[in-house]
From TrEMBL:
Keywords: ATP-binding, Nucleotide-binding, Transport. GO terms for cellular component: plasma membrane. PANTHER family: AMINO ACID ABC TRANSPORTER ATP-BINDING PROTEIN (PTHR45772:SF7), CONSERVED COMPONENT OF ABC TRANSPORTER FOR NATURAL AMINO ACIDS-RELATED (PTHR45772). This is Amino acid/amide ABC transporter ATP-binding protein 1 (HAAT family). Pfam families: ABC_tran (PF00005), BCA_ABC_TP_C (PF12399).
Length: 295
């Protein structure tokens, strides 16, 4: 029997020919991508490639100059709050928690978005709202349990270690009960243990059926995490496919190293055959050879 990962997945999120122009700068040019149900899609690319801009288009923060974004076939509203209610949640490159609120209160904020009623409503309204509020707390605790922060629900968010703050951001996003979760550099600044814990957490999120898009600079992390990977370079999708296909593609190596693979290999080979042996053989020969090479 085929595992869930290998069966064709229904597309939940699709960007079609998305172009984003700021003044004279084309940040995204005709970008298309598809995210399958319960899949993890990685988005990599050099600085300034347009990854965050694409996230902003996928969350209604930006309206693309051209092209469309569809969630389960329906055009995305161009209002971030409506996009969240429609089922897309995100975390940010720079953590955006409410630093002076407790861990539990931060998750409750996500829960209220899901409930489509603000916290003030529970004060102004009758007992059924207070009952909803109790249910919201219980549900928020479930999400804290899921990410492993249940024991510190009363800590103030700003006092949490960095890795825990990132986890809390994820818990808050999960509390909106999204169809799609967008994670912008979830392991930035993490130590290897925290990074591994984040990888395991994202796998567990996939097991719940949520579809995830992850932006990361750490390509090793992306290749070991994702079901498919898209490489953005200068606002365009350069390569997309399975982690293996993308990792071995010479264009990807070139985009990261700035040179064609053959040239990189020739450089390495050249260094081995000419420079290194001379150092090994005789300390003076490099300079002598240099002098001999001069016309
Ligand atoms: N609001 C904006 N107004 C003008 N230009 C913008 C805006 N947002 C992004 N850009 C430009 O669009 C291009 C893509 O930027 P973006 O932040 O999306 O890249 P990135 O791949 O996320 O980079 P990084 O890895 O450094 O975060 C850059 O040239 C950037 O300066």
């Amino acid at each position: 029997m085929m595992s869930a990962q290998h069966r064709a997945a229904e597309t939940v999120l699709a960007a079609n020919g998305v172009t984003m122009i700021f003044g004279g700068l084309t940040a995204l040019n005709n970008v298309s991508l598809e995210l399958g149900e319960g899949r993890i899609l990685g988005l990599i690319g050099p600085n300034g490639a347009g990854k965050t801009t694409l996230f902003n288009c996928l969350t209604g923060l930006y309206t693309p100059t051209k092209g469309s974004v569809r969630l389960r076939g329906a055009q995305l509203p161009s209002d971030p709050a409506k996009v969240t209610s429609a089922g897309i949640a995100r975390t940010f490159q720079n953590i955006r928690l409410f630093p002076n609120m407790t861990v539990l209160e931060n998750v409750l904020v996500g829960r209220h978005i899901q409930m489509k009623q603000g916290p003030i409503a529970s004060v102004l309204h009758g007992p059924w709202f207070r009952r909803d509020e109790r249910a919201a707390r219980e549900k928020s605790r479930d999400f804290l349990n899921f990410v492993g922060l249940r024991d510190i629900e009363n800590e103030v968010a700003r006092n949490l270690p960095y890795g825990d703050q990132r986890r809390l951001e994820i818990a808050r996003a999960l509390a909106t009960e999204p169809t799609v979760l967008l994670l912008d550099e979830p392991t930035a600044g993490m130590n290897p243990q925290e990074t591994e814990a984040a990888r395991q957490l994202i796998f567990r999120i996939r097991e719940t059926g949520i579809s995830t898009v992850v932006i990361e600079h750490d390509t090793k992390f992306i290749f070991s995490l994702c079901d498919s990977v898209s490489v953005l370079v200068q606002g365009e999708v350069l390569v997309e496919g399975s982690p293996e296909t993308v990792r071995d593609d010479p264009r990807v190596i070139e985009a990261y190293l700035g040179k064609p693979r053959e040239e990189v290999e020739a450089d390495v080979e050249g260094a081995r055959t000419t420079i290194i042996p001379r150092y090994d053989d005789d300390q003076t020969t490099v300079m002598e050879q240099y002098r001999e090479d001069q016309p």
